[in-house]
Structures are given as structure tokens and as C-alpha cells.
Design brief:
Helices cover about 40% and strands about 15% of the residues. The structure holds pyridoxal-5'-phosphate (PLP).
Length: about 450
């Protein structure tokens, strides 16, 4: 065992490119090796047992090592581990899961689901099917996509093209043409107003102007996250999503809700858009669908969109899209077990309650810590925005390494938290309870106090 541990430490970054980091930096600061998990805790290679403030990567919503999920996976593997959804075959779990998702999203009139392996796939599927939808309903010029700055929609070429942060795109351009980003309704940092209503209206006006400038007959869809996650946990004003739905309806533009993070409870409602009282035309789902036990994603279509394929047969309507992993039986079996837990244990409700406790516990840092500009969040998505100048709200330069230092201190205090640019992101499992929330809060409060004491 020790031999293996020594091998892992020595070889940690030798043969593997890690995402979202320069390989030289990850070589110099090797990633922490996580060996085990149970519930809201993980144990690293050095034997440290830590509260998982990230829930893996916003995804282990039911917690680690759940016997029900493992049992479902093994039972499915005992039957068959894989068979294709192409070419006239299907497997049982994908049939059951598609029915389950349509039942859970009946309020949104979701009637069709297409499976894939992850969130980036789910976004790609939504973008492609939205273009196909417009072809099927006789408006083939509707091909363009709108999205929000600070938005994150995965890493495939389509998703990158609608991504609202240039640093994800720069190395991989040129991307898809016809994609336009609009200012995010971000109360803490925007050139318009701190008044949420004025801000929401300013952004909606910008959306309308962009649609009109492009020509409504050329715009296929608007894609957005109900709460922007990777962009820094940006919670829009409460009126923004209803106003967004209204303006898109005015010009018949489809609304794609990227629910990869918010889907299945994280923002305190079963779906993020539902939390804003809005029914999207499509939803991108992944992460919490299978809590990371097996990779899985899905794109859900409402009746309005799905019905376009049922106007009669046409070559145009053939869905020339799909992945080897589409409908993966083990992924779907894991998801069925996870979604049962989400419902039985009311994880959206717990996310709302525990999220409020987390936010309340961390909010005082805005006053007590010299570099915390804002603590914000919704449900179990919380962000601490670090600044180099509080009055000017200047984001802390990620190159300064200060946010990483705070995260490292928090880890020494018993919680894994995620530094992402100038923000620390928290997204613990949705099964978390008060004692573990308090461990995260205390770890960050002590980490910030330690930083200030060192100045
Ligand atoms: C909103 C959103 N969409 C899409 C993705 C991409 O998902 P994946 O990393 O599973 O490809 C993510 C990942 O974090 C996400 O947060």
C-alpha cells in the first residue's frame, strides 16, 4: 500500500494533463490525491479527512459512497454493462430514466430527453437540436445563439462559442460564428446600476437590441445558467429570468436553461429556472443527475420543441447526432438511484436550508476580512469574491496566489474549497447537514483571519 502511495506521489502529474491549469504549475503544485469518500467527507492520501466543500465538482449531490447507488450500478453491471442506443437497440435504464425525467419536469412540459455523457455534450446537443428545430418549423435562417458574459457552458466548440469568459476561448479560437454575449445581470459588478430592477431592465434592453440588430429571424436560442456557476456564482435579480422569458417569447427565440449545475436541486429548487418561476424550452442536465458516480448528461426538450419532430417524416428530422455513451445503461441506472434519493430526501429543500446557513455564516466576512468584497449565493452555490480594493471592487489578481492561499489555509482547517480566479466557490453535497456547514464556515473564517494577521 505504501509502495503504491509513494508511486502516486512521485508520478502524480508526470503523465496526466490536468484541466484548467498550465502543466508546469500543476507539476510544481501537484494536486491533492483523494483516496476515499463517505457522505460529505473525503480522505486524502495523507489520511486527512476533510469536508467536501465542492461536492466533487458541483456534482456529488447525494454524497459519496451511497450503498443504494452502488447497488444499482452493480445490479445493472450484472445484467449488462453496455449496449448501444444506435441502430435499433436500447437498454432498460435509459427508457426508465427518460420517463423519470419527464415526470420530474412535467411542470416544464418536458416530453423528450436525449442522453449523453457529460454537461458539455448536453450543451452541444441543445445547440444542435435547436438549429434543427428551426429547420423543421420552416425558419432555417434562425441559427445564431445569444448568451451572457461570465457564462460557462462547457468546453466543446459550440459550448465554448457561447461561453461568456474569454480566457476559456482564447487558446482555441476561431470558434463558431453567430454567437453574441450580453452583459450579465451582476449586481456587484456592472456599468449600469446597483438597483436590481434597473439592472435587470438594462440587460433585457441589451438583449432586445441585440436580437433586433441581428434580426429576430436569424436568432435560434438564448442559453444561460439560472445562477452562473463557474463564472463566480452570480445570482441574477429575481425579476431577470421572467423578463428574459418574456423578451425571448416576443421574438420567438428559444430559451435553453443550462442546468448542468442547478438541475436536481442545487439552487434550492428542483430546477434552477423553476426557482425563478420560468419554463425553459430546453434544459441541459448532467452533474447531479448521477452525482458523478458514472458520467452522464441529458438534454431535455419541452413539448413545443419536441413536437417539431412529429409533424411527419422528413430527412431533415433525422437526428444525426448521438454519442457512443448515449443512454449508457450503467450511467442511467446510477441516475435512477440518485434521483430517487433527490426526491425521497428532499435535497432541493435541504439545499435551500443549508445554503441559507452557509451564506449567513460567511456574510460577516464582508466586514471582518480585508479582502472579501462580497459573499453571495443561492441554495448550495456560494461564492466569496476576493478584492484588492474594496471600494473599487477590484477583483483580486489570480496571479497573486492569494485566493489559492486562503483555500490552502481552509484545507488545513478541515474543508476543501475551490479557488477559481478571484472567487472561492462552495458547492457541497446536497445531503450536507448543519455540523458540516459549520466546519466549512469556521475553516474559511479562520483562513481569512490568518491571512489578515499575516499582513
Ligand atoms: C453550467 C455548466 N454547463 C456545462 C458544463 C460542462 O459540463 P462538463 O464539465 O460535465 O462537460 C458545466 C461544468 O461545470 C457547467 O457548470
Amino acid at each position: 500500500m505504501l509502495d503504491r502511495d509513494n508511486f502516486l506521489r512521485a508520478e502524480n502529474t508526470r503523465h496526466q494533463f490536468h484541466p484548467m491549469i498550465h502543466p508546469i504549475i500543476s507539476g510544481a503544485h501537484p494536486p491533492q490525491i483523494i483516496m476515499q469518500g463517505d457522505g460529505c467527507y473525503v480522505t486524502d492520501i495523507d489520511g486527512n479527512r476533510l469536508v467536501d466543500g465542492l461536492g466533487g465538482l458541483w456534482n456529488v449531490n447525494v454524497g459519496h459512497n451511497r450503498p443504494e447507488v452502488k447497488r444499482a450500478i452493480i445490479e445493472q453491471m450484472d445484467r449488462i454493462s453496455y449496449y448501444s442506443s444506435f441502430a435499433g437497440t436500447a437498454t432498460a435504464p435509459s427508457i426508465e430514466l427518460s420517463a423519470k425525467i419527464c415526470e420530474m419536469a412535467a411542470e416544464e412540459e418536458i416530453t423528450k430527453v436525449m442522453f449523453c455523457a457529460n454537461g458539455s455534450d448536453a450543451v452541444e446537443t441543445a445547440l444542435k437540436l435547436s438549429r434543427q428545430y428551426w429547420q423543421l418549423v420552416g425558419q432555417p435562417t434562425r441559427t445564431k445563439f445569444l448568451s451572457l458574459k461570465q457564462g460557462y457552458h462547457g468546453v466543446h466548440f459550440g459550448g465554448l462559442s457561447v461561453n461568456g469568459a474569454p480566457y476559456y476561448r482564447n487558446a482555441y479560437e476561431p470558434l463558431l460564428g453567430g454567437c453574441f454575449q450580453i452583459d450579465s445581470p451582476w449586481t456587484y459588478r456592472n456599468p449600469y446600476s446597483e438597483d436590481p430592477e434597473v439592472l435587470a431592465d438594462a440587460v433585457i434592453t441589451q438583449i432586445e437590441r441585440t436580437i433586433l440588430a441581428q434580426g429576430p429571424q436569424t436568432v435560434a436560442a438564448f442559453i444561460a445558467e439560472p445562477v452562473q456557476g463557474a463564472g463566480g456564482v452570480i445570482v441574477p435579480p429575481g425579476s431577470f429570468w421572467p423578463k428574459l422569458r418574456a423578451i425571448l417569447d416576443k421574438y420567438e427565440v428559444l430559451l435553453i436553461s443550462d442546468e448542468v449545475v442547478t438541475g436536481f436541486g442545487r439552487s434550492g429548487a428542483m430546477f434552477g429556472a423553476r426557482g425563478w418561476g420560468v419554463k425553459p424550452d430546453m434544459m441541459c442536465l448532467a452533474k447531479g443527475i448521477s452525482s458523478g458516480y458514472v458520467p452522464l448528461g441529458a438534454t431535455a426538450l419541452n413539448k413545443r420543441v419536441a413536437d417539431a419532430w412529429y409533424q411527419g417524416f422528413s430527412e431533415q428530422g433525422i437526428i444525426m447526432h448521438g454519442y457512443t455513451a448515449t443512454g449508457h445503461p450503467v450511467g442511467c441506472a446510477a441516475a435512477l438511484a440518485c434521483l430517487e434519493i433527490v426526491e425521497d430526501e428532499d435535497l432541493p429543500g435541504n439545499a435551500a436550508r443549508m445554503g441559507a446557513r452557509l451564506l449567513e455564516g460567511l456574510k460577516p466576512l464582508e466586514q471582518s476580512c480585508s479582502i472579501v468584497g462580497e459573499v453571495r449565493g443561492k441554495g448550495l452555490m456560494v461564492g466569496l469574491d476576493f478584492v484588492s480594493d474594496k471600494a473599487a471592487r477590484t477583483p483580486m489578481d489570480p496571479g497573486a496566489g492569494i485566493v489559492e492561499r486562503i483555500a490552502a489555509y481552509a484545507r488545513e482547517e478541515g474543508a476543501i474549497v475551490r479557488p477559481a480566479g478571484s472567487v472561492i466557490i462552495l458547492s457541497p453535497p446536497l445531503v450536507i447537514e448543519a455540523p458540516e456547514i459549520d466546519i466549512i464556515v469556521n475553516a474559511l473564517v479562520r483562513a481569512c483571519a490568518r491571512y489578515d494577521a499575516e499582513q
